[in-house]
Amino acid sequence: MDPKTLELIEDARKDNPELDTLVTRHQHLNRQVDELNGQPHLTAEEKIELSRLKKEKLRIRDMIEQIVQKKRSA
Q1: What is the pLDDT of residues 20-71, one digit of tens each?
Q2: Percent helix / strand / coil, the chain, rounded to 5
Q3: Residue 23 placed within a domain
Q4: Is 71 domain-assigned?
């Protein structure tokens, strides 16, 4: 995301509990993905979990983007 969008998100988090929750969840998922990606070898279960985490992260990012778009149009 561009810096202007990130700034908008940070400002909007204060007034929008849903957005704050989504951003916090996205950050948590990002840490989990980074942790798994940092391992030299992944088991089959870990690979599945990594895929699941990435999909969830993208889903949440899309939700954040929808909120940002609504904020921009308001």
Answers
A1: 999 999 999 999 999 999 999 999 999 999 999 999 999 999 999 999 998 8
A2: 85, 0, 15
A3: no
A4: yes
How many domains does the structure of the chain reveal?
1
Range of the domain at 68: 35-74
Sign of the dihedral defined by the CA atoms of residues 13, 15, 18, 24, in that order: positive
The 10s digit of each residue's pLDDT in 7-27 is 889 888 988 999 999 999 999
Whole-model pTM: value is: 0.88
Closest C-alpha to 54, from 23, 25, 24, 33: 33
Residue 15 lies in a domain: no
